[in-house]
Every structure is written in C-alpha cells, then in structure tokens.
Amino acid sequence: MNNKIFTIAFFIQFILCSLLLNSPSYAQNPKQSVINISKITTWVREDGFHDWVVGNEEFNGAYPNSLPVGVIFSEGIVWGGLIYDGQSPIVRVNGNTYMSGCAPITRLYKVRTDYYKADLKKDAAVFFNKDINSVTNEDIEQIKSQYEKDWNEWPAEKGAPYFDEDGDGKYNPDVDVPGVPGALQTIWIDYNDSLSSSIYGSPPIGLEIQETYWAYTNANPLGNVIYKKVDIIYKGTASSASDSRIDSMYICQWSDPDVGNSTDDFSGCDTLLNLGYSYNFRDPDLVYKKLGMAPPAVGYGFLQGVSKYTGNNTDSAIINFKWRKGRKYVNIKSMSRFIYDGPGSVWASPTFNYNGTLEFYNMMRGYMPIPYYPSSFQFPSIVADYTPDGVFLLDGDPVTGTGKIDGIFDGAGDKEMWLMSGPFNLSLGDTAEVAIALVGGMGKNHLSSITELRNNTRTAALFYNYFVEDMTNGTIHVPPPERTKSKPLPEHYVLYQNYPNPFNSSTTITYELPEKAFVTLIVYDVLGREVSRLVEKSQEPSRYSIRFDAGNLSSGIYFYKITFNNTSSKLVFDKLYKTMKMILLK
Q: Potential cystine with 253: which of 39, 419, 516, 582 (Cβ 3.0-4.6 Å)?
C-alpha cells in the first residue's frame, strides 16, 4: 500500500470502493470495471478514478493477467490551466490521482464483441476477484447479462464509439457493433468536474471528460497494451462568462507505478517514443521473485497530442480515430513534458489543498512544484533537459547506462510519473483530445524488460497509426454480431476485416455470399507473392469463416484477396471489399 496519503478523504474513498467491489449486486451496472482481455489489466471507475483492487489492494491491475501482482498502484487523467471565466482563482487543477475530484454523468459501459459465444469464466474470476475454480454459473450469467445490457444500451448518441454496419449514422444494437471497431473489449465513461472543490482545492472549470479504453487479444506484443482516448470538452459552469477561455492548459497522464515491490523503482522517459516509464532498479524484485519472474517495466506512451482548428487544408490531425484536414497539432511532440518525484529528491507530491493546485500546475509546466506558481524554478540539470520540444527528466538510456538516468541524483523508491501534453488553449465548446497507451514489458531481467517495453510501445504506436489510416479510408469492416440462432441469407457479397487484426499466428477471415458462386480466397505478401490459397471452390449462399494459420510466416503486412465468380449476378456490390490488409505480429 502506498504510504504517501494521510488524508481522511482518502480513507473514506478507500472504504467506499471496497464496499462497492464486494457488493453481491456489483455486476449490475457496476461503478467500476476492468479491461482484462489481454496480458495486462486495469480497473477504472465511472468518475475516472483507478482503484487498487488487485493483490490485497496493492495494484490497480494485474501483470501478467490473473496473477496477484501488478505494475501500477493508481493512475488517472489530471488537467490544469489558467481559467478566464469571470471567477477566481484563475489557476485551477483537477482530475484523478489518489482520490477523485469528479462526478459521473452517465454510468460505466463495457462491451465485449464476442460475449454471446465466449467462455466468460475468466472474465468472472477477474471481476469478482475469485479463483477461477470458484467461479459459479451465476457469476458467469451476471457477467454475460451485463455485457448484453451494455450492448443494447450503448451510449453512441453521447459519443461512445461503434461500428456503423448499416451506415445509417445511428446505433442499432441488432446490426451495429459497439466499442472501438476491431477491439475485443471496450470501456466507456463520461464524467465532469462539477464537485464544489477539486482534490487540490480548485473550484470547477466546467469540463466534461469522456474516456474510452480498449484492448485486443494478441499474445505478443499487442497483448501488453491497453489503449485510452480522452476527450475533454469545455462547457463552462452556470456562472461562466460567454467569452470564457482556458489559457496554457495541460492534460496530464498521472500515475503511481509500483513494479511489484513499491520501494525499489526507478523512472525514465524515451523522447523518441513519447514514453514515460518505471522499472526496477535491480534484479530481483521481491514480489515478482516469489512468482519466479524477473521484474517487468511499465509505461505510458502518448500516441496523439492535442490539436487545434486552423482551417488550412494543408494541415491535418487525428480526431475521433480519423485524419481530419484543417487541424494542426499544438505541440511538436505529443508528450511535451515528463516529470517524476520520489524519495531523495528535493521536490514532493502536491498537497491536497489549493497550494497543491499551484504545485501541480508548476510541474505540468515543467518546473519544480515549490516555490508556488507563478514562480518557476527549473529542475536540477543533472536530471532535466529543457529543450525546444519540451521539458524531460531522466531522458537517458538505462539499458546502456548513458545520459541522464535515475539513481544518479536520488535513489530508488515509490515514485510518481507525470506525462503532459500542452500547453494549449480552449474556448467554450472546444474539445481537447489525446490518445495514450498503457504498455508493459516482460524481459529476462530488469533492463531487458525496458527493451521489451520499448518494442511493445513501438508496436502500439504502429498499430494505432494503421488503425487510424484504415478508419480514415473506410477499409475497416467489422463482422456483425451473431447473437441469434436464426441467420438470414446475406443481401450482398461482403469481405470483412480479419479478426483479430493484428494477429499472432492465426486469424479468421469472414465473408458472405448472397447467392451461389465460385469463391477464390488467396493471401499475398507485400511483394505480391502468393502465401496461401485458403478457398477455391463453389459455395452456396451463406456466411463463411476461414481460419488462416500464419505460424510459418514472419511478422509484417499481408493482403488477402477474394474473388466471387458469378457472371449471372445482378446484385449491386456496394459493400464488396475485394482486397484487405492484415498485420502479423509475433
């Protein structure tokens, strides 16, 4: 248990969270839930708070999945800026750290696209914090029932992502697929800063925050990643002036990493990968040693920074999973600041009062927390680099032992990390959007785990870019749900995106025939060479799923092409995708 927090509010919140988690009816419209589909897991509450519920309340999630050990104690999104709305104080900070300064607008929603046919025993074990052999049929039914409820009530009208299968611009649970297209599991929450005072003593700004979490099932390396998109909408308060604005605002991905044992961690950042991370300062770690494992590394990669509208068609930026012209990123780097604190340093975690607001805002700007804003003292040059692209502490390389690395200025211990995107400005009605990846890396020792973490972060960023490209070009086509026994004949020839994608070793390709046809389905490499001929025969009208085993192939991009030979057809092929791309990651 982290020993930094000694406030009454902390203990009250801790007790309330424990009561909620152990309530028998917790699975029905739960206040918090977990992304648990891959190797790394994370719990999140409907107000954006990340509770510590794993391993006797020592971790927010497990890494590896299903073990009573993890790498993050708590984390959350924090924001701060200069608020000009006719009210005071001007400097305000709020969000989620060891407590929440926020309130939910809607309930939490979570979907799993294959819930209707998947074995949900593991889902139930993780959710109810049970040994998998103790899971009952009632536990599984509660999980399945909530998945179905969230599928049917998915808040697409509020902005929750979904695949619009029928293309009518409206969410239809019988046809459309909720969640991030292609992801197996998605959580969506919607909250605001309407509480009378933030955790750092600031009054509300008038923000609505929507967070989307999603993950895939790939074993390596994407199985070590949980994605998160954050949208902060400036709506103002009831007393905000019509010309209200926020200047010099920052979005902060805050975390308290505990890589197993909390007292032996180091911090660092990789400015090329926009990555801030935590790792063990030596081998072994006391907690992971008991499991016969080397200590992993964990970090957050900023995949997408905040953009602004320019109206210039030569500019472009990602908004809601698509490239948009007329927008430009505010900062050169999506991670413009990396700060840490910990034992032995001359700066400490912000206090839970208004002085904490001034401290936190200074750290967001890349300065020491004390003296309070507007004063600004730089961090010691032995740990900090002040560059045109931002301010970065500990941006050396621990693997090679070069540059500014942890352990030179202060020692190992229970440290916190701040990754910032900013500064930027918002007017009423504006939205600031960022995308972040929680990434783990498991090597043979504490330093090789950093190498694995970097490799997994590169893959996370690469796939995010592929995903956005496909969304922009409209080439993602998600198979509709098979939630009923009756399957009407297809109305069109359709080739769907393989699933999962990217994939490790094997994936499934689905297509539909509205009439009898001779079907040829071939996989090619990037040079156009045939890799595998999966189908070459006449087939009756129906829906078909073919498994493609790529165990002998190397990682890379492949294409699959389908040909429907039926010259007598008079159908309009308005949904036909003849060739599609897939990514093999090993």
A: 419
**What residues contact residue 253 under an 8 Å CB cut-off, 6+ apart?**
75, 77, 276, 300, 302, 418, 419, 420, 436
* Phi/psi-derived region of residue 55, left when phi > 0, alpha when psi is between -120 and 50, beta in every other case: left
Shared-domain flag, residues 97 and 174: yes
pLDDT band at 475; cut points 50, 70, 90: confident
Residue written as tokens 């931002």? 390
In a domain, 444, yes or no: no
Where in 207-321 does DSSP place strands (E)?
Answer: 207-215, 225-234, 245-257, 265-270, 275-280, 297-304, 307-309, 316-319
Q: What is the CATH number of the domain that holds 549?
A: 2.60.40.2550
Q: Is residue 444 a contact partner of residue 433, using CB atoms and an 8 Å limit?
A: no
Residues 458 and 499 in one domain: no
321 DSSP 8-state letter? T
The residue whose two tokens read 């019509």 is: 242
Within this chain, do residues 423 and 571 fall inside the same structural domain, yes or no? Answer: no
Whether 372 is in a domain gets the answer no
In a domain, 564, yes or no: yes
Q: In this structure, are residues 253 and 340 in contact, taking their beta carbons and an 8 Å threshold?
A: no
For residues 435 and 576, state if they share a domain. Answer: no
The strand pairing partners of 563, in sequence order, are 520
Q: What angle do CA 171, 172, 175 make, to 5 degrees?
A: 125
Kindly state whether residues 85 and 201 are assigned to the same domain.
yes
Looking at the structure, tell me whether residues 173 and 317 fall in a common domain.
yes
Q: Where do the H-state alpha helices sit in 100-246?
A: 121-127, 137-152
At 550, list the tokens. 């790529």
CB 8 within 8 A of CB 30: no
> Tell me: the pLDDT tens digits for 420-432?
999 999 999 999 9
Domain with 557 in it: 494-584
Q: Which residues does residue 536 pair with via DSSP β-bridges, in sequence order? A: 520
How far CA 393 is from CA of 79, 168, 397, 436, in Å, comes to 20, 49, 12, 19
Helices (H) and strands (E) in the chain, counts: 6, 31
Is residue 111 within 8 Å of 147, Cβ to Cβ?
yes
Query: How many structural domains does the chain have?
Result: 2
Q: What is the 3-state secondary structure (H, E, C) of 506-547?
A: EEEEEEEECCCEEEEEEEEECCCCEEEEEEEEEECCEEEEEE
> Is residue 485 included in any domain, yes or no?
no
Answer whether residue 484 shows pLDDT above 70. no
pLDDT in tens, 49-80: 999 999 988 999 999 999 999 999 999 999 99
- Structure-block tokens of residue 337: 């600041």
Of 252, 284, 251, 278, the residue nearest 265 (C-alpha): 278
